[in-house]
Amino acid sequence: MKSDIEIAREINLKPIQEIAQHIGLPTDELMPYGKHKAKVPAQLINANQAANLILVTAITPTKAGIGKTTTSVGLSLGLEKLGKKTVVALREPSLGPCFGMKGGAAGGGYAQVLPMEDINLHFTGDFHAITSAHNMISALLDNYQYQHRNTDRQLKQVLWKRVLDVNDRALRQIVTGLGAIANGVTTESGFDITPASEIMAILCLANNMEDLRSRIERIILGYTFDNQPFTVKDLGVAGAITVLLKDAIHPNLVQTTEHTAAFIHGGPFANIAHGCNSVVATQMALTFGDYVITEAGFGADLGAEKFFNIKCRQAGLQPKATVIVVTSQALKLHGGVPESDISKPNLEGLKNGLANLEKHVTNVQSFGQSVVIGFNQYGFDTEEEMNYMRKWSQEHNATFAINNGFSKGGEGAKELAQAVVDTVENRPSQPLQFTYDLTDDIPTKIEKIAAKIYGAKEVSLGKKATSKLKRIKRLGLEHLPICIAKTQYSFSDNAKQLGVAKDFVFSIEDLVINAGAGFIVVIAGNIMRMPGLPKEPQAKHIDMVNGNIVGLS
Q: Are the beta carbons of 101 and 60 closer than 8 angstroms?
């Protein structure tokens, strides 16, 4: 089969105006970025409450991959084949993983969003705008410290770091202001990756420009000598930062491999942030689509949990069903089968791995969601294994469907699409049941997620986290939801515990107040908010050959 980029390059893209017309979006409202991309004014949102919102999530990711974005795109194509006006709403890829491990994040095979090269690279500049806005605050804050050095207006503690959309471990901890005093106040600092920026979370959770500015004003940058929070509003620059984001707030319209509509907007990671595309993109899709497919990052314990407990709670969204994506290879890895053997028939290994799927199914059902299990089929999958999976799914009150969207596009995803339609029409999800109440205190919220979603036997708060908890209580912020940052490779905070981790202590190292985004980041284990590059970065394979980009996937 051809590579993703070869398939993408062979698609004859339609003008973006035709894509807009297909979903009834006024073409004179588009803000084109060339022929095949456009921003759509957020003011057009008038969410159709009759539209069907479908979440796509997955089992715990493995080295074998799962294919969640490919499934999201394929499902939207399959629904179009069934005559449903469908829009897919996804996150924007980050340059960090793109040039690091993944090589791209625009779907795969015949289920991609296009133009994939643009989407995977600079796209419409949203990530650059977020990076610039974040670092503008850093520069203005450093200037504030410099101008008020040795006075009672100087801050006792600065929390705000810088960000960059590159995997760069050397920037995790730095010292700024070295040299002469004219270079600024010497300060310990560091960089996070742009998807971990609070500005990214704010952009993705804001309902409109006014809400965006209000959230930016609430960002806590540091603390004064009398232990009062110092915010962007106190710095007096919220207006300037909002101006930098005036275009980034609007969702981006592109097309799929079969010329259906896709909104790509925002890109927080699910292991270190809340892992969902923007609220405005989802609401825009609900305005113009009858079925809307969206996804949440990594496994359901991370992305789906935050999608429900944070995004849906804040935006008032109510999904009609959730698709959990699986592959036989991933199940066998979780079942203890050596990586070298996961493409071979092994029903017992697959059965053992189903414990991981079962935990995710139970978790998603605990939110009141009806579950469809989307099985991404490979040529080596056996009828015996797939029949067992179908029977197992029925026994666990879930619908099973085989998906071949990667190799066959919408035709290959029709079984999955029909399963979703049948679920929505015959047994739609119940009103969302959240894991915790906002009135719970922070330790209780953490304990409920750790016990109910992860399966931990207890939670341990480190010294730093305990100290931060006192500050959260003093500031009256315990009502905020929590966003747990942890490894994506395990239910626990230990990446090596595959399958279903049991009887473990969930260790909390730190608590970070994101008052603008409206949640408390709970940092578990040794998770880092600035990733490093692998031994063999994908950047070594990305190139321009005869005028064409190669190496993206």
A: no
Helix axes 198-205, 126-147, angle to 10 degrees: 130
Q: Which residues pair with 507 in a beta bridge?
A: 460
Rounded to a whole number, what is the distance in angstroms from the first to the last CA of the chain?
Answer: 13
> Structural domains in the chain?
6-124+248-426 (3.40.50.300), 126-234 (3.30.1510.10), 442-524 (3.10.410.10)
Buried b / exposed e across 177-209, counting CB within 10 Å, b at 16+?
A: beeeeeebbeeebebbbbbbbbbbbbbbbbbeb
What stretch of H or E contains 38?
strand 38-39
Whether the Cβ atoms of residue 41 and residue 251 lie closer than 8 Å to each other = no
CA distance 75 to 56: 9
Instruction: Calculate mean pLDDT across residues 272-298.
Output: 95
Cα 38 to Cα 40: distance, rounded to the nearest angstrom: 6
Distances 484 to 192, 455, 493, 510 between C-alpha atoms, Å: 16, 15, 10, 10
CB contact set of 125 (below 8 Å; sequence gap of 6+): 247, 248
Exposed, middle or buried, 434 (CB in 10 Å: 0-12/13-18/19+)?
middle
Distance of alpha carbon 465 from alpha carbon 473, whole angstroms:
12
Q: Say if CB 57 and CB 299 are below 8 A apart.
A: yes
Bridge partners for 229 per DSSP:
223
For the question of whether the overall pTM of this predicted structure is more than 0.90, the answer is yes
Band of the pLDDT at 443, cuts 50, 70, 90? very high
Express each pLDDT in 492-548 by its tens digit: 999 889 899 988 999 999 999 999 999 999 999 888 889 999 898 988 888 889 888
Contact indicator for 198, 516 with CB cutoff of 8 Å: yes
Higher pLDDT, 6 or 75: 75
**Helix 405-412, helix 414-426: angle, nearest 10:** 50
Residue 437 burial by CB count (10 A; 0-12/13-18/19+): exposed, middle or buried? exposed
d(CA 24, CA 1) in angstroms, rounded, equals 35
CB of 232 closer than 8 Å to CB of 137: yes
| Amino acid letter, residue 548 | N
- Four-point Cα dihedral 178, 179, 185, 187, nearest 10: 20
Q: Can you tell me whether residue 9 is helix, strand or coil? A: helix
Residue 103's pLDDT band (boundaries 50, 70, 90)?
A: low
pLDDT average, residue stretch 168-194: 94
| Strand segments (E) across 386-514 | 398-403, 458-461, 482-485, 505-514
